[in-house]
Amino acid sequence: MRKILLAVFLITAIFVSATDYFFGLGFQGLVNVNHTDGEWRISIVPVTSLSSGGVESGGFVFNVLRDRGFALVSRLSLKPVTHVHTFHCEAIDVNAKTLEVFVADGTHGLKIYKFYGPRLYKLVQTLPVKGWVNSLAYHENSILAGTEVDGLFLFKRGPEGFEEIQRLFPSGIDRLEAGITVRAIVASGERFFVAAGSEGALVLEFSDGLLRVTGKLTANYALDVAVSEKYVAVVEPQESTISFFDVLDLKPITSLDFDASPVQAVIAKNWEDGKDYLLCRFSDSVSIIEMGAFQELFSMKGAFFGIVKPVYGID
């Protein structure tokens, strides 16, 4: 196996097919893979810079462009609508209810944008973060941001906006404990899952308003983590493997071995058939795999830079 207006934003999603998947193909653009009536169709959306990953929500794709910020792409027309310039967009997340967009902006910390329509937005807050911010996840008025070597930062919404309330795994010569290398963060339910390199995948839960490590998914090197209603998937490039754990008790279920090293994974639900699909990125290709049966349905060669993650419903 190889592998606007608020109403307009929210209602648009109803009319968009649930069988569209998006992959960033660098300077060649954003690749749309559509599955209709058993046939796969591919189209490319031109963007202004290095198309990477991102999120899709409310009928729009928020495509990460790295040193050019991010682009807002309509899923209906498959055309760019808005380009937002930032210092260096590394990762992005969306609150579909409030139309807030959260950007991991490298050494410029966290940027929070408020959208009032596809072309109308403003920067509402900048949160300073020590180090290079490379990952983040939003869940119920909390943002967990990760850095390359300076640990994790937790922000919570207050009356004046988001404010930092906790730092985990700080590094430095004056610290007795070493920090961690954060590679990716995903939120699910009341938990955050953190791909932490040689530390494996960490499970964090709230206790008295602060995050505590409550579990660890063993991996030689966790480069990415994805989660669904049933599974937690941990990407292990050194082993050319993706390991799957039960999302409730965190016990190992199975693993998939590949001919090439996986570097990213996203679990997406197809609302037409009710099944979950694993979207995998390798150094030279991408694949779409049906969960449960673990059967590869689609693959495409290319130097891809990211997978667009669906954000479902209203938080």
What does this structure look like?
The chain is mostly beta strands and 315 residues long. The protein has one domain: Methylamine Dehydrogenase, Chain H. It has 1 helix and 28 strands. An 8-stranded mixed beta sheet has the order 3-2-1-28-4-5-6-7, with no helix packed on it. The longest helix has 7 residues. The radius of gyration is 18 Å and the shape is globular. The chain starts with 5 loop residues before the first helix and ends in a 5-residue tail after the last strand. The N terminus is likely disordered.
CATH fold node name: Methylamine Dehydrogenase, Chain H
Shape: globular
Architecture per CATH nomenclature, i.e. the level-2 architecture? 7 Propeller
Give the SSE order as H and E letters: HEEEEEEEEEEEEEEEEEEEEEEEEEEEE
Report the uncertain regions: 1-18
Give a count of the beta strands, DSSP E runs of length 2 or more: 28
Which percent range fits the helix content?
under 10%
State the name of the first-level CATH class: Mainly Beta
Mean pLDDT: 91
Give me the secondary-structure topology.
Elements lengths: L5 H7 L7 E5 L5 E7 L2 E7 L8 E4 L2 E5 L5 E5 L5 E5 L6 E5 L4 E5 L5 E8 L2 E8 L5 E7 L2 E6 L4 E7 L2 E8 L15 E5 L2 E5 L5 E7 L2 E8 L6 E4 L3 E6 L4 E6 L5 E6 L4 E8 L6 E7 L2 E6 L4 E7 L4 E5 L5
Parallel strand pairs: 4-28
Antiparallel strand pairs: 1-2, 1-28, 2-3, 4-5, 5-6, 6-7, 8-9, 9-10, 10-11, 12-13, 13-14, 14-15, 16-17, 17-18, 18-19, 20-21, 21-22, 22-23, 24-25, 25-26, 26-27
Structure in a nutshell:
With 315 residues, the chain is an all-beta fold. The protein has one helix at residues 6-12, and strands at 20-24, 30-36, 39-45, 54-57, 60-64, 70-74, 80-84, 91-95, 100-104, 110-117, 120-127, 133-139, 142-147, 152-158, 161-168, 184-188, 191-195, 201-207, 210-217, 224-227, 231-236, 241-246, 252-257, 262-269, 276-282, 285-290, 295-301, 306-310. Helices cover 2% and strands 55% of the residues.
